[in-house]
Amino acid sequence: MSASKSNPQGGTPGLDIAGQVLDVLRSGIAAKQTPPHPHTEEEKQDAAATLAAYSELGPEYQDAVVESFLNRLDAQMVKRNAAVVDSNRKAADLEKQRSGVTTGMLAVCLAMAIPLTAIAMSMGDGLIPLLVVWGGIVMVAVALGFGRGRS
User: Fold this and answer.
1) pLDDT above 70: residue 103
2) Is the sign of the CA dihedral 57, 58, 61, 66 positive or negative?
3) What is the spatial distance between Cα 4 and Cα 136, in angstroms, rounded to a whole number?
4) From the CB of residue 52, how many other CB atoms can be counted at a distance below 10 Å?
5) Does residue 128 have a pLDDT over 60?
6) DSSP symbols for 20-42
7) How many whole angstroms separate alpha carbon 51 and alpha carbon 74?
C-alpha cells in the first residue's frame, strides 16, 4: 500500500495510519493535556514518511528510523507541554494574587467592625444600630466572597 494512493473517504491511508501511530505514542502525555492538540498535516506527513522509510529500508536501519522519529516526537511534546505548564503557572499566580487582595480587603472590613460596633453601642438605642452595622459588615464580606468566586 503506497502513501500516495487515496482511500474512498478522501484521506491518504499512510497519513491515517501515521495519525493513529501519533495518537498511540502521545497517549501518555496527551491524555493529561486539556484540550488535546490536534495533529497538524506536517506531523501526519512526517509520520507517514517515517513509516514508509521504515518499511522500505532493511532491518539494519529500522531501529535508527524509529529512534529518529521518537526524538522528533519528544521535541514536539516538550514544546507543547512547556506551553501548557507556562499557562497553568500564570493562572495559578493570578489566582494567588487575587486571593491575597480579597483576604486583605476582608481584614480591613473586620478591622473597621471594631470602631463601628463601638459607635453603634454608644448610641444607646438598643440592638437595632448594632444589627444594622453587623448586617452591613456581613453583606460586605459576602460580596467579597462572591467577587472572588467570579474572577
Assistant:
1) yes
2) positive
3) 74
4) 16
5) yes
6) HHHHHHHHHHHTTSSSPPPPPHH
7) 17
| pTM for the model | 0.38
C-beta atoms surrounding 48 within 10 Å: 21
Nearby residues of 15 by Cβ (< 8 Å), 6 or more positions away: 3, 41, 44, 45, 47, 48
Whether omega before 38 lies within 30 degrees of 0, making that bond cis, reads: no
Instruction: Identify whether the C-beta of residue 14 lies closer than 8 Å to the C-beta of residue 2.
Output: yes
Which tens digits make up the pLDDT trace of 28-67? 555 555 555 677 787 778 888 888 887 787 778 778 888 8
DSSP for 67-109, please give it. Answer: HHHHHHHHHHHHHHHHHHHHHHHHHHHHHHHHHHHHHHHHHHH
